Amino acid sequence: MDHVGNPLRTAQDRRLPRIPEPCALVIFGVTGDLSRKKLIPAVYDLANRGLLPPGFVVLGFARRDWGDGDFESLALEAAKKGARTPWREDVWQRLASQFQFVPGSFDDDAAFDHLAATLDDLRERNGIPGNAAFYFSIPPAAFPLVLNQLARTGMADNAKSGGWRRVVVEKPFGNDLQTAIALNQLVDEVFTPQDVYRIDHYLGKETVQNILALRFANSLFEPVWNSKYVDSVQITMAEDVGIGTRAAFYDASGAARDVLQNHLLQLLALVGMEEPTSFDPQEVRAEKLKVLKAISLPKDISKGSVRGQYLQGWVAGERAVGYLEEKNIPSDSTTETYVAVRLGIQNRRWAEVPFFVRVGKRMPRRVTEIAILFKRAPHLPFDPADVEMLGHNQLVIRVQPDEGVVLKFGSKVPGTTMEVRDIAMDFQYGEAFTESSPEAYERLVLDVLVGDRTLFPDAAEVEQSWRVIDPLEAAWADTKPEPYRAGEWGPRASDEMLAREGRAWRRA
Amino acid sequence: MIGLWDTTGNEVVKALAAERRSAGGVASGLALTLVAVVEEKKVREAEAAATIAAAAHPCRLLIVVRSDLDGRSRLDAEIVVGGRLGPAEAVVMRMYGRLALHAESVVMPLLAPDVPVVTWWHEDPPEVIANDFLGVVADRRITDCAQAADPVAALRRRAADYAPGDTDLTWTRITLWRTLVAGAFDTTDERVVGATIVAPEKDPTAALMKGWLQSRLGIVPKWEFTDRSPRMHSVELQCANGDCVRVTREENTALFSRTGQEDRYMPLPRRPVGDELAEELRRLDADQIYSEALGAMAGLSDLDKKPPMRVHVWRDPALAARADEAAGAMAGPGGSAA
């Protein structure tokens, strides 16, 4: 954290980036997918942008009989493949010289003692005064083991280490409310609650942060951001891919637990929240939590939600197998790969405004967007035939890909008749723009090291999100998901759910 | 791409609109208009830099090349939307003769409506910015004193001529240095009592570094001249308790040494001009820290209190150079007016 006393830094000097104090990043499960695809490249990109402190060490922990050299070559390959910024050998050489590999399994006391000794060692050798962030890139089942090891060796103790000790946890944050509470308790007990960083990488995306700028920096949108003008909100997260290699995990959780609980409810919270008194992490979280608490489920969950499961079909010109034919999926699985649910927010601002949230795999294309559909004008002084093609005004925040904002409104078709039709004004946040904006992980890893908690959901938010999901899961317990063909926008029942109230899904 | 030879300002405006229409980008997210004032031999360089900068800041790029002031008034223009110059929509204009003195008459109608204008001189910075209408019309002005024959003197000139909203790329070039030096004091409350900068005598970055340390720390840093390195070589800060922090440049890295700690290497790359320009475009408000550093360096105070708007002061180079012919030359721009 910034020292108040540093005379070389002032708030006006916005060129100087935030640089963490000398610290170590300890990655558990460093040989895993996430670490190779996201973490190591993010660390390299940070180093390349000069955002890492002079004393910075990466300690990789995983179960492999490896020397430092093998680890280095794995990291090199990962960084080269995933790096966003240009490759610079000298930057890598320096960074790699600060990589160390600590082999061991999670139940191996000696390995953790060795890790603790290595961390202590850094104090003398690298001038790192006890600061370390522990990144859990491991299956949740292994969390208790590792946490207990950290507690046993005192590695998680701020006072004992003489610096800060932080822990970074990836989703899933539990499997339901109970397991989430248990996990939160365990993590908070070993570390202190404010040292726990839960990564929801959606919050690291520029466009997601831009939702707050769009809403609270402009006077144009906020006056109409309520039930008086908004007809409904649709939040869509569609993926064209299937479940890939995550069969075991996915079949046990399903779409609702996998992404609805975290990414989508976070998006909903950002769209629905009241203005925070400041951008202090505490304030933003307080407002988000209020919205999450105000979420109401459909009275009849069987009517207000639809689960789906993809059959075989064609997606983007390629044949895709059905969910039940995927490798390692039981042929009688009732896990959903698609969920659509009608939520409400019980407060004055959003009373009676439905929030339709849907998420699916094997959809026609990959897109995440938030669409605010406005009410029709109270009176249309046109001939009904002339406004037949006029729909709802829409403001669409596209989160990925092609981040941007679309505004859809009615306009006269050139000609002698007063024919009014919808047109879309598409503001690309710029494909090129995105190119140079940091990757979500880059931003989030830096935030952890700097100690900025704004973009990390806290335990209360996670638990509250499960309170939304659990009743849904309970109601779905003995039901079978509706089938839909891969490459379609979900099951027909989902369209019917909206059609019943005279609405329709926006084609994302 | 459209090329127009011996054309008029109006034709250029029409051609740009036509190119935009045919490129299909009806609504685009223009963040600013970047006017690049360049000499002929640096056009490619400026284009490359602006392309990099435009990737981060979608802009309309107007490159103005003024040459051959004594010749016949003439305007050649090249319009590029997308493609070669990246996401920018660009107009490269070459102006000759008296028209070159009235470049604004061509540039003004091309400025994107109601977005900030940034003027960047990729050449020897002007003596007095108020004399160049392209600088007066801009909300932000970026010069590059390193391109002057005597960069340090040019910086002093910038201080005397300063208005809030001016910056110099020399300042941008030491952001990484400043980051390293400032970072050293995040974890300690030690008071700094002295500083030494080792750099060539003509190095403008060292001059600004000195000014910055002086304005922030209230000390007078020493500047040791060296011929061994073409650029700033090292910055050393002495603390009250005798500790010492030193950053030394070695090629693309910085050797970071601190009393009682092992030496460490940090990246200190020389960035392409495009990256520097992108950094400048990130903030379109006045850089107060720069004005303080510049003021301290030139011995002037309260630079940030100067009025941010300049008033154009007409200065005819022909008049200055050849006082006798001046009367005839005042007749006005030959055929450039729209």
TrEMBL record, chain B:
Q: Where is the Glucose-6-phosphate dehydrogenase assembly protein OpcA N-terminal domain?
A: 50-159
Q: Taking every annotated instance into account, which residue ranges of this chain make up the domain Glucose-6-phosphate dehydrogenase assembly protein OpcA C-terminal?
A: 164-294
Q: What protein name applies here? A: Glucose-6-phosphate dehydrogenase assembly protein OpcA
